[in-house]
Amino acid sequence: MTVVNIGQRIDGQYGELSPQEQRAADFILDHLSDLAVYNASELARLSGVSKATVSRLFRRLGFQDSAEVREHARALRSYGSPVGGPGASAGTPSRLAAHVEAEQENLRRMLVGVEDGRLDEASRLIASARHVLVIGMRNSYPLALHLREQLMQSRDRVTLGPVPGQSIGEDLAELGPRDAVVLFGFRRRAAGFAQLAQAIQRRGVPLVLIADSSARRHSDKATHWLECPIDSVSAFDSYAAAMSLVNLLATGAMGAHVRESRTRIAAITSAYEDLDELEVPW
Questions:
Q1: How far out from the chain centre does Cα 181 lie?
Q2: CA 187 to CA 185: how far, in whole Å?
Q3: Is the separation of the CB atoms in 225 and 209 below 8 Å?
Q4: Which residues sit opposite 211 in a β-bridge?
Q5: How far does the signal peptide extend, from start to end residue (predicted)?
Q6: Which whole number is the average pLDDT over 258-281?
Q7: How many angstroms separate the CA atoms of 255 and 267, rounded?
Q8: Are the beta carbons of 187 and 81 closer than 8 angstroms?
Q9: CA 243 from chain center: how many Å?
Q10: For residue 86, is pLDDT > 50?
């Protein structure tokens, strides 16, 4: 699915706009994250142009009216497209306060969603599996990489897939009911995500699915579904709560087999020292 957002439409026609239309367009580009709540009158007042100018600009950009623009902005946010501009207000106290509030709300919602015991169950599954495959593509890749690195501190046979430039089939071929897959699926997922979840299910491999609400339709394929909000008041989705969930999941897996985890941590620390890999902290 390709979505040509209003910012791209403005960029494509900016040189053809009148000075007043450019003034309104500049305001829109700097406040895309707020566009879903403004009507034409408010945009005109805030950008210092007439309502007729705003209406004319919308028509130039392919919208019938401000209601359609607001719906377009809401759709972009739900789809995961970056919505926002380099506005000077990005670092002001009010913006920062709104950012903190949104981050805290994401964290709160994530924790409420896993307090029924599903997080502990997922951690125990990961700790006991023969082999753990962690999968993350696009925006989910950094989260998958971080979880893999944390799990490696307390257990062996944790791999990250797919290897850059490779397909995922090779990673799935050897997995079975004694193994586990942790699949990250945050929005703007790669094509084929549904087929991947189905393939894991068909092989009888226990699946931990970690994603935002847009992936609920895939949750029936998962042994454990961990939902994590990524809502943001800025241009981009926020993965702060998701990183916190990774921390909790890895910590839970470590705590499921404390003695084995401590033995492995000691061995890793010794290897660090032999290889002189880490900076001395004092």
A1: 18
A2: 6
A3: yes
A4: 227
A5: none
A6: 82
A7: 17
A8: no
A9: 10
A10: no
In angstroms, the CA 261 to CA 150 distance is 12
Q: Looking at the predicted structure, is the pLDDT value of residue 1 above 50?
A: no
- Rounded to 5 degrees, what are φ and ψ at 183? -115, 120
Task: Using the predicted structure, report yes or no on whether residue 51 has a pLDDT greater than 80.
Answer: yes
pLDDT tens for residues 13-27? 888 889 999 988 888
What DSSP character marks residue 90?
A: G
Whose CA is closest to 145, among 131, 159, 157?
Answer: 159
> Does pLDDT of 31 surpass 80?
no
Q: 2: Cβ–Cβ under 8 A, 6 or more apart, which residues? A: none
Domains of the chain: 6-86 (1.10.10.10), 97-275 (3.40.50.10490)
CA distance 69 to 43: 11
State how far the Cα of 8 lies from the Cα of 18, in Å rounded to an integer.
Answer: 18
Joined tokens for residue 144 = 């998958």
Give the number of residues written for the chain.
282
* Burial environment of residue 231 by CB neighbours within 10 A (0 to 12, 13 to 18, 19 or more): middle
Cβ neighbourhood burial of 277 (10 Å; 0-12, 13-18, 19+) = exposed
**For residue 19, cis peptide bond before it (omega within 30 degrees of 0):** no
Provide the β-strand partners of residue 161: 135
- The encoded tokens of residue 242 equal 């998701």
Closest among 192, 186, 189, 185 to 167, alpha carbons compared? 192
